[in-house]
From TrEMBL:
Entry's Gene Ontology BP terms: translation
UniProt keyword list: Plastid, Ribonucleoprotein, Ribosomal protein
CC annotations in GO: cytoplasm; ribonucleoprotein complex; ribosome
Species assigned in the record: Scherffelia dubia (Green alga)
Protein name, entry field: Ribosomal protein S8
Length: 129
């Protein structure tokens, strides 16, 4: 039984990237849907489609010339056993701004750039680059 849906989703995407799979199936949860939408908005995945059973079919993005995945690394930061919080002034940058942190704030899930603009801190859920 899995207790951490976000970690499960990140692991599925990471494994599909390693195997150069085009699609990956992600179980439907609210947090998975919101994080996937942020990944799509930031350009790390091609698209998200809903399957008939309610799960998400995620089309991963690869560089057209080199065929390398657009996602180099995907990492869970705050875990159920060790929560990590940051205020808006102390939100770190991922690879000098190339990557993105996903934060859980009082206004919902936001990227690090959006949280800094809105001057919101929160729980650092994951990073992607």
């Amino acid at each position: 039984m899995k207790n951490d849906n976000l970690s499960d989703m990140l692991t599925r995407i990471r494994n599909a990237n390693i195997l150069h799979r085009r699609n990956v199936i992600i179980p439907k949860t609210k947090i998975n849907e919101k994080v996937l939408n942020l990944f799509e908005k930031e350009g790390f995945i091609e698209s998200i489609a809903k399957e008939q059973n309610g799960d998400f079919s995620v089309l991963l993005k690869y560089d057209k010339k080199t065929k390398k995945p657009c996602i180099t690394n995907l990492q869970r930061i705050s875990k159920p056993g060790l929560r990590i919080y940051s205020n808006h002034k102390e939100i770190p940058e991922v690879l000098g701004g190339i990557g993105v942190f996903i934060l859980s704030t009082s206004k919902g899930l936001l990227t690090d750039k959006e949280a800094k603009q809105q001057k919101l801190g929160g729980e650092l859920l994951c990073s992607i680059w």
